[in-house]
Design brief:
The complex is a heterodimer of chains A (376) and B (392).
Chain A: H1 7-23, H2 26-34, H3 41-49, H4 68-81, H5 87-100, H6 103-114, E1 120-123, E2 139-143, E3 146-157, E4 164-170, E5 181-187, E6 193-200, E7 205-216, E8 221-222, H7 228-264, E9 266-267, E10 270-271, H8 276-304, H9 310-339, H10 349-362, H11 367-375
Parallel strand pairs in A: 1-4
Antiparallel strand pairs in A: 2-3, 3-7, 4-5, 5-8, 6-7, 9-10
Helix pairs in contact in A: 1-4, 4-7, 5-6, 5-7, 7-8, 7-9, 7-10, 8-9, 9-10, 9-11
Chain B: H1 7-23, H2 26-33, H3 40-53, H4 71-84, H5 92-104, H6 107-119, E1 124-127, E2 143-147, E3 150-157, E4 168-174, E5 186-192, E6 198-204, E7 210-223, E8 227-228, H7 234-244, H8 252-268, E9 270-271, E10 274-275, H9 280-310, H10 318-339, E11 345-350, H11 356-367, H12 378-389
Parallel strand pairs in B: 1-4
Antiparallel strand pairs in B: 2-3, 3-7, 4-5, 5-8, 6-7, 9-10
Helix pairs in contact in B: 1-4, 4-8, 5-6, 5-7, 8-9, 8-10, 9-10, 10-11, 10-12
The chains are: A alpha+beta (376), B alpha+beta (392).
Chain lengths: 376, 392
């Protein structure tokens, strides 16, 4: 048992934190959000230079062969700074291609990802799906050697900045069937693909995607035809654990801000932190955050342990997501409440942390969804 | 004990319902049920419709235009408004400033201000909180120095709801900075917002909406006849007002409407191949809130009954604010939960036909965190109950 970071992990975490504190403070972030694309090329290049994008990709593709555990302190730092760049989406889809893609797909995508020249997004959600990865109505039909895709995907986070979008589509069966789901890597802007772009509640960019007779080659199919669900679930579980790590960072930042506020905000002639009614609630926020951190470590170890036992992986990832969703809700709500009116103004970072925590609770499955999967 | 409304009360309910159905402008209703903010014109238009019916200020003394309704009828009126998606008039003029004037105003002040409040001619806002005086309101620092026939006001107010619509603002100001007891030395002033030296600055909330403001006073001249009650006795006025306005904090009607809407949405949203409302976990969450609301409705009726019988209610009424806001917040949260991944929607960037209602669901959850903070935070409400009701 050893929860300490190794030297390399510690160095990377420290330099990332230093960089974000210097170049990604609240004001810098505000400018990025207000920009046309809603994300910064300069920040992305720095992530590439620091080696973050290849951290969890296999050595053969030029990565560092790490896993969710290695990415934990990276995601934690991104969470503390409320980074809006499409890191999670890119790393999650890259991980999927690394695990399930052909050699040609890996060669064409992964080195570019590592160099910061290719961003990716994951399009699984549909109007009637609501977290259920098997509820796929988007269809892919054979078209000569290739495929033609028709359907619609909703709330595809980071689609507007992505070079390629991984789309789940049905090649046989009906919505809800585990079999018959295939995965396609489609260039954003492919003929027949329309993006309707919006800003998310937590200031990422996302799009509703329409696919109308989108033709792709045989080489767009990732993994075996009709057998995409297992790879998709594994990738989403990987992404979910990364998001849990991010949430831990956001919670830490919300706790830090609240503790500072309790010590400095004076009412009735004393710091409000001298009131026992608030002291105990602050302690409960810390306990929630630490419990969330612990279960995230546990889930990361299961995800990195390989896919030998998918049922066990799902169970631990769901356990983490239940805990994270509930802790994120608790910490977010209490941080705001204890900041009083200031906590719900746009001028305070804690309001943005609250929004990010809330949205994390609603992506990749909410607490109820994962409770069901945990007990299944 | 009888939990049912009388025949007369039920027919009164019908009358209110019919009136609202026939007179509430569709565009205003659409904004309320679609969670969009109302413009000043929307409020004033609705106010004038109510004034024309004689229903803008039901709770006022009849000689000033009140309807003479009893407490139950007033509750029914509020509840029907909530159910119908009619906006409640902002309370600052018709409820708060008017309550102060009825109790403490001179005949001249009443004559000057009350009819215009009743008719919706002046839009009033409230200048209470300051950056250093929130829960600890008596710590306020905005100065009003007497110079002959006027005061000179300098300082800053914060959280001024709809301050950007305000024609007039009632303020607590410090007229005696040397008094060591901070509750003494405060006065209650009525200030015309067109007076030179007043600046209103928006304070954007978590949902990017503009409803509250900072108001700055820089050597603002206020005639002494705008002082209400005695100089340095403003805390008496403030306390009267704080105790006055907690009966409709339960917002039962609005919550009932939100609950019905939530059920409909859950019935139309598919999850795991069937309607969300059939999901047992979700159903339990929904049922718990519904049961809490059922209980709160009766708790509210019990306070109304006490008010009817004794003309007074105790500090326990704080529980209506605590539970009422918790229910409102829970309903926004469940609505967001049903939307699931679609709750990430916020604002269109390049999106024809963007679903602005969908985009408001999580915003509303964020925004409604204010309800447990404003009008005396729920912590302060618990302090009131523990100190004044329980003697702790």
């Amino acid at each position: 048992m050893n929860f300490e970071l190794n030297e390399e992990q510690q160095l990377l975490a420290d330099s990332l934190k230093r960089y974000l504190e210097k170049d990604y403070d609240f004001e810098a972030r505000k400018k990025i959000i207000a920009s046309a694309t809603g994300c910064s090329d300069a920040v992305w290049s720095t992530f590439a230079e620091m080696g973050l994008l290849g951290l969890a990709l296999s050595d053969a593709q030029g990565g560092f062969g790490g896993g969710a555990g290695d990415l934990h302190s990276v995601m934690d730092a991104l969470g503390q700074a409320l980074v809006v760049e499409p890191f999670l989406s890119t790393v999650t889809v890259a991980h999927l291609i690394d695990r399930a893609g052909s050699e040609a797909q890996k060669k064409s995508v992964l080195p570019a990802v590592i160099e910061g020249k290719c961003k990716l997004a994951l399009a699984t959600e549909e109007a009637q799906a609501r977290y259920d990865l098997a509820q796929v109505s988007t269809s892919a039909k054979r078209d000569g050697a290739g495929w033609v895709l028709d359907g619609a995907k909703v709330a595809v986070v980071d689609a507007p900045s992505a070079d390629h979008i991984l789309v789940s589509a049905r090649t046989s069966g009906k919505a809800g069937d585990a079999d018959g789901i295939s995965l396609f890597l489609v260039a954003r802007g492919a003929a027949g693909m329309t993006l309707k772009t919006f800003r998310t509640q937590d200031n990422a960019r996302a799009a509703d995607l329409t696919l109308k007779g989108v033709k792709v080659g045989a080489d767009a199919l990732v993994g075996a035809e009709g057998k995409g669900l297992a790879a998709l679930e594994e990738a989403v579980d990987f992404g979910t654990v990364l998001q849990c790590s991010e949430a831990v960072g956001v919670m830490q930042s919300a706790c830090d801000a609240t503790l500072e506020y309790l010590k400095t905000r004076k009412q009735f002639g004393v710091a409000i932190g001298s009131f026992q009614a608030l002291q105990h609630r602050m302690v409960d926020m810390i306990v929630s955050t630490e419990q969330a951190r612990s279960i995230t470590y546990l889930a990361a170890s299961k995800v990195d342990g390989g896919a030998a036992d998918a049922a066990e992986r799902k169970r631990f990832v769901s356990a983490a997501k239940v805990k994270i969703s509930e802790a994120a809700r608790h910490v977010g709500q209490e941080a705001v409440q204890m900041h009083g009116g200031m906590g719900i103004t746009l001028e305070m970072k804690v309001a943005h942390s609250f929004k990010r925590l809330t949205m994390i609770g609603l992506t990749f499955g909410d607490a109820d969804h994962h409770l069901e999967r945990f007990a299944a | 004990m009888d939990l049912k409304y009388s025949a007369a009360e039920r027919s009164f309910r019908e009358e209110v319902r019919d009136f609202v159905r026939e007179n509430l402008p569709a565009d205003i209703r659409a904004k309320v049920v679609g969670y969009q903010g109302l413009s000043k014109d929307d409020y004033v238009r609705w106010h004038k419709i109510l004034a024309a019916k004689g229903w803008a200020v039901p709770h006022w003394p009849t000689e000033w235009g009140g309807t003479g309704w009893n407490i139950t009828e007033r509750y029914i009126y509020d509840e029907e408004f909530g159910l119908a998606g009619a906006p409640l008039l902002p309370p600052f003029g018709p409820n708060m400033c008017a309550a102060v004037l009825h109790r403490f105003g001179t005949p001249a002040q009443k004559q000057r201000f009350l009819p215009r409040i009743r008719e919706g001619d002046d839009f009033w806002v409230q200048g209470y909180s300051e950056p250093g005086a929130g829960s600890d309101l008596a710590a306020l620092k905005t100065r009003a120095d007497r110079k002959g026939d006027h005061y000179v006001v300098t300082g800053q107010k914060i959280w001024t709801t709809l301050g950007h619509y305000g024609d007039w603002i009632f303020c607590l100001v410090r007229t005696d900075p040397n008094n060591p007891k901070k509750q003494e030395g405060i006065s209650f002033l009525l200030i015309d917002m067109k007076t030179p030296g007043i600046t209103v600055r928006p304070l954007y909330l978590v949902d990017e909406g503009h409803e509250v403001n900072e108001v700055f006073f820089d050597d603002v001249k206020v005639p002494v006849e705008n002082l209400v009650f005695e100089e340095n006795k403003g805390w008496t006025v403030a306390k009267y007002l704080l105790g006055h306005e907690r009966l409709n904090t339960g917002r039962i009607g609005g919550s009932k409407r939100e609950l019905a809407k939530l059920k409909k949405m859950a019935a139309e949203t598919m999850y795991r191949g069937r309607p969300m409302i059939e999901d047992q976990r979700f159903k339990d969450r929904l049922s718990r809130v519904e049961i809490e609301l059922m209980a709160l409705e009766v708790t509210n009726m019990r306070f109304l009954d006490e008010m009817r019988r004794t003309g007074n209610i105790g500090p326990e009424v704080s529980m209506l604010k605590i539970r009422g806001t918790e229910i409102q917040q829970a309903l926004t949260e469940l609505t967001m939960q049903v939307a699931g991944p679609r709750a990430q929607l916020f604002k269109p960037v390049d999106y024809d036909g963007f679903d602005s209602y969908g985009g408001s669901l999580a915003s509303r959850y964020f925004n409604y965190r204010k309800t447990s903070i404003y009008a005396g935070s729920n912590e302060i409400q618990r302090n009131i109950m523990s100190k004044m009701a329980l003697g702790l």
